[in-house]
Amino acid sequence: MIADEPGSQDLDWIQVVQRLRTIAGEGLAYSENDYDRDRYRRLAELADEIVTAQSGSLSTGGEAVLIGEGYPTPKVDVRAAVFRGGQILLVREASDGRWSLAGGWADLGETPGEVAVREVAEEAGYIVSPRRLLALWDKSRHGHPRSLEAIYKIVIDCSLVGSQQNRPPSHEVLEVGWFDPADLPPLSTGRITESQVLRIVQLHQDQALPADFD
Predict the structure, then answer these.
(1) What angle do CA 166, 168, 172 make, to 5 degrees?
(2) Same domain for 35 and 92
(3) 29 with 71: CB under 8 angstroms?
(4) For residue 4, what pLDDT is reported?
(5) Which residues, other chains included, contact 103 with Cβ-Cβ below 8 Å and sequence gap of 6+?
(6) R_g (Cα) of the chain, nearest Å
(7) In degrees to the nearest 10, what's the CA dihedral of 106, 110, 137, 151?
(8) Are residues 59 and 87 in the same domain?
(9) Residue 61 has what pLDDT?
(10) Most CB contacts within 10 A, which of 5, 27, 111, 198?
(11) In a structure prediction context, what are the per-residue pLDDT tens digits for the chain, which is 214 residues long?
């Protein structure tokens, strides 16, 4: 068994899987013959076998485990910070019943600001306009539950423009609400933490502060 307890002298299995997937991805991206590509595909399969064996130690939250071809890079999660009268907009996620900033994975062909606008419209039913970057965080460094994926989190400060009428309910969101930052509901910590929300509030309130980044 590969240990995943902090301070263990055994190998950290999540780091092992991440490294194996990186090596496999680099090999698949740059190998020039089928023999080497087959070896790197097998390395990716071994990484998946470790995840399968350790599946009771980590909830992947639906993350893809098998590696695709191409050079491995972090995924990008874009979140929108929307304020109204001192309250912050949150959505309750259907996946875990907890609350988060509206947002999701960046899509090809969209800027981060466009992603933020679309996600707020789809998940919360509000029309917003992106104003400025508040934060660009490496998820692994901010107290989130551990993840097999390398993820960068972008938070965009958005101005409230209006609300959509007759918006069909999103299958990803159970409800939408405005909350006092001093009285937050249970948060979906895989997406956002309390310390991050409080920092976002500070950055929103003081426009002279530069964006956070890792």
Answers:
(1) 145
(2) no
(3) yes
(4) 42
(5) 77, 78, 79, 80, 115, 116, 119, 123, 191
(6) 19
(7) 30
(8) no
(9) 39
(10) 27
(11) 444 444 445 567 777 777 777 787 777 777 778 777 778 788 877 877 777 777 655 444 334 444 444 566 888 999 999 999 999 999 999 999 999 999 999 987 899 999 999 999 999 999 999 999 999 999 989 988 877 678 999 999 999 999 876 666 678 899 999 999 999 999 999 999 999 999 999 999 999 999 999 9
Q: Is 99 helix (H, G, I), strand (E, B) or coil?
A: strand
Whole-Å CA distances, 75 to 12, 57, 64, 105 = 22, 22, 11, 7
Examine the domain organization and report whether 3 and 43 are in the same domain. Answer: yes
The domain tally of the chain equals: 2
Both tokens of residue 4?
Answer: 């995943």
Tokens linked to 85: 């009268």
109 and 37 in one domain?
A: no
Q: Which of 27, 45, 72 is the last residue of a domain?
A: 72
Assess whether 125 and 209 both reside in one domain: yes
Residue 102: which CATH number?
3.90.79.10
| Predicted local distance difference test score (pLDDT) of residue 41 | 80
162 burial class (0-12, 13-18, 19+ CB within 10 angstroms)? exposed
Quick check: 30 and 37 in contact, CB under 8 A? no
Helix (H) or strand (E) holding 112: helix 112-124
